[in-house]
Write a structure and sequence with these properties.
The chain has 433 residues and is of the alpha/beta class. The chain is 33% helix and 23% strand. The mean pLDDT is 97. It binds 5'-deoxyadenosine and iron/sulfur cluster.
């Protein structure tokens, strides 16, 4: 009988992919089946995020709960970004944890799983040419890493300390992995990296001459691959050649994440983002001009140290001018191993909360208008998930989530849908073919 694995994945797409790698590697050693029930699991893994403080605090209470509920002899492992930055401290604070595996050490899962209190968290470990086993959460939509780590020094961000310096994965491996996924039914790929459009700056062992735009062109030649998405690009590396490719390559989905963080040039400088309010607006205007059908999403941090009323007004102005289709907004959270944790002029929680609310309620108004405007329109939906009550979910080329009534016969197909209803988060429609 195969062992049972319970795996909880927090954080970003990189973590989702890392969880897939962990499952694939474990299965190369011995068969595991996934379970959603802690009490049934032989192995419990919490794949953590450390980008903000709250989830880190939650981790220890969760370990306590899992430890009480788990069956005799079951193991608990903590992996991912919090594992990287707390390391051994996790075992000191919670001795029921059997092993700790950092975000850059996924391939070592089979080494640590049977070692009591093993800790593997080296952030200079090179996994860029490691050939992981195959496991996909969703066979229709493949996630593929194109780089690991991050070479930026944004002053608020813990990620360079948890995922290490940036290394690009050789393009032949990326090509091979996508081709395999396509052969087993995926029409769509999501390219993942902390900073995808910095691709090609540094490889582990090979010195290819290739940048992100060229990688996109190369991947586009894969027969049977219909849709390419990527996250996250950095506004600083969005050169004109890339934006032209984005606009004119029909396989590139017209959905782009352009993380703003702040609309104030002074705050952007304090964050070491490398661009100004004007250059950010210039890039977004160019995207709107070249790709009018594209949706633009962004990340915004509110209440960064020293953020004045005027700085926040600058952020609001950028929000108005770009008209982002989606905004992920956060209160600034001081993180260990970052420069900004030492900054003076912290903004009170009261002011930060009020600013966040103002930003979110303004965006909600914009969003409702944008979503309502979709009613009556047609879009091409790639169906990839069966939902309860005979509903099937998929995404338009521009990333909007669409539900229709139907069966598994729709899965893996790209079909024309007429939009009939809209909520803030999703559209409903009927298949038109
Ligand atoms: N505080 C708040 N938000 C943060 N992010 C990254 N670090 C912090 C922090 N210290 C946000 C950024 C990033 C997203 C993934 O999380 O907006 O783009
Ligand atoms: Fe992803 Fe960053 Fe969270 Fe790590 S800290 S899981 S890289 S969002």
């Amino acid at each position: 009988m195969s062992k049972k694995l319970f795996i909880e994945t927090l954080g970003c797409g990189m973590n989702v992919r890392d969880s897939e790698h962990i499952i694939a590697e474990l299965n190369r050693k011995e068969p595991y089946t996934l379970t959603q029930t802690i009490e049934d699991a032989d192995l419990i893994i919490i794949n953590t995020c450390s980008v903000r403080e709250k989830p880190v605090a939650k981790l220890f209470s969760e370990i306590g709960i899992f430890n009480k509920r788990k069956k005799e002899g079951a193991k608990i492992g903590v992996t991912g970004c919090t594992a990287s930055h707390l390391g051994e401290e996790i075992i000191k604070r919670a001795p029921s944890v059997d092993f700790v595996l950092g975000a850059r050490n996924v391939s070592k899962i089979t080494q640590v799983v049977d070692q009591k209190h093993a800790v593997e968290i080296a952030i200079d470990y090179d996994e860029s040419s490691y050939e992981f086993g195959e496991y996909r959460t969703n066979p229709y939509r493949a996630m593929v890493n194109i780089s690991i780590g991050c070479d930026k020094q944004c002053t608020f961000c813990i990620v360079p300390a948890t995922r290490g310096e940036e290394i690009s994965i050789p393009s032949y491996l990326i090509f091979q992995e996508i081709s395999k996924a396509v052969a087993s039914g995926a029409k769509e790929v999501m390219l993942l990296g902390q900073n995808v459009n910095n691709y090609g700056r540094q490889f582990g062992n090979n010195e290819e001459k290739i940048n992100f735009t060229k990688l996109l062109q190369k991947i586009s030649t894969i027969d049977g691959l219909e849709r390419i998405r990527f996250t996250s690009p950095h506004p600083l590396h969005m050169d004109d050649t890339f934006l032209e490719e984005f606009a004119h390559n029909p396989k590139l989905c017209k959905q782009i994440h352009v993380p703003l963080q702040s609309g104030s040039t002074a705050i952007l400088q304090a964050m070491k983002r490398g661009y100004t309010k004007e250059s950010f607006l210039n890039r977004c205007e160019k995207i709107r001009r070249l790709s009018p059908e594209a949706t633009i999403s962004t990340d915004i941090i509110v209440g960064f140290p020293g953020e004045s009323e005027q700085d926040f007004e600058d952020t609001m102005e950028v929000v108005e001018r770009v008209g982002f289709e989606q905004i992920f907004s956060f209160k600034y959270s001081p993180r260990p191993q970052t420069q900004a944790q030492h900054f003076k002029n912290m903004i009170s929680d009261e002011i930060t909360t009020a600013r966040l609310q103002r930003l979110q309620s303004r965006h909600l108004e914009m969003l409702v208008a944008q979503m309502d405007a979709q009613i009556g329109s047609f879009c091409q939906v790639y169906f990839d998930e069966l939902k309860p009550n005979r509903r099937v979910a998929g995404r338009c080329d521009n990333g909007r989530l669409v539900f229709v009534e139907g069966s598994e016969a729709l899965l893996g197909k790209v079909l024309t849908v007429k939009i009939t209803h809209a909520t803030r988060t999703a559209l409903e429609g009927v298949v038109w073919e």
